[in-house]
Amino acid sequence: MKKQFVIYGDSPFAERLYSYIRQEDMIKVLGFTNDDGFMTRTEIQGRKVYSFSSFVRYMKDDCELILAYGYSRMNDLREKIYNECVKAGCRIGTYISSHVISYSDQIGEGSIILPGVLIGPGTVIGKCNCIEAACVFSHDSIVGDFNYFSSGVVMGGYSRIGNHCFLGLNSTIRNGISLADYTLIGAASNLLISTDEYGVYVGNPGRCLPQKSVDTVL
User: Fold this and answer.
1) From 139, 163, 167, 189, active-site residue
2) Is 139 known to be catalytic?
3) Confidence (pTM)
């Protein structure tokens, strides 16, 4: 019997995630849900969007939530929703595409990993990370919680990613590099040095933008 999921969110990202799931036909999506005050539609591709209060009231014991929220406020919103769902007694699901190549069995709950991702041996991924298509985690890397990896990110071996980081399209993290919490890496940037504190890093080689707060970017 297929696992049963409800997707939390009614954004374009939630709809795109549903398209992946439906195409792969590995799990069953019963519908969508969103916070009562933030619902923008009542149906997505033939699946009903439930208010969260209604979902909690009638949720099934074998149903899990997939948190289809992006990187708003450096993933703080996703952490807030995660905590609220756990407090409400919801089970948090993990979605790993059937087209992911993974040599790791240490992937935290609530993570979303889209097609074409390679996760090398010895890699540890924390909870509620969103990893877009075609990312590469070479080997022996550690990823914290509530991070967002845009498509095409490449991480060298023995890298360390903190919590609440954002890595832009096709950015590269050199082997052995560590990112502090709330680090933002711009698209196509090549980071060759570790970050000691949060900030915005862009370019090749990557450099920190002075007086630039991550709060003004995402």
Assistant:
1) 139
2) yes
3) 0.95
